[in-house]
Specification:
Radius of gyration: 16 Å
Shape: globular
Structural class: alpha+beta
Helix content: 10-25%
Largest sheet: 5 strands, mixed
Strand order of the largest sheet: 1-3-4-6-5
Number of helices: 3
Number of strands: 7
Order of helices and strands: EEHEEHHEEE
Strand content: 25-35%
Length: 143
Amino acid sequence: MEISFANTSHKEELLITSDETRLKQVLINLINNAIKYTEKGSVKVDYNTNASHVIFRVSDTGVGIHPDNIETIFERFVKIEGENTVKDGTGLGLAISKSIIETLGGELAVSSELSKGSVFTVTLPLQTAKTLPSSNSENALTA
């Protein structure tokens, strides 16, 4: 399996005012899930920005999620079970991740194609160094 990390924003430094611990928790959960459900192929982590948001994407070429399960994937205790897809876990990781991202003012979304893989997208508000209040700089993340 190939794992890659990419900065597609073309910015040398990115400043995000957020809860560093919680953002890392979510990204690690998404990366772990991608690895868990990808036996062959690749997992890619990248980020980009637009005028007001930073967008993190964790994509894989794993088993994918059946369209019938997309609506419930972020509910508590939901585990996607099917042929070759039963994995360890409680079914809480994505529900907790979505709650964290929404608390941080962002969104967590998924797109997937069965047998081809999934893309989980985290979108968070962006503050550039020009707009960042100096009193919040200790909570800023640099990527």
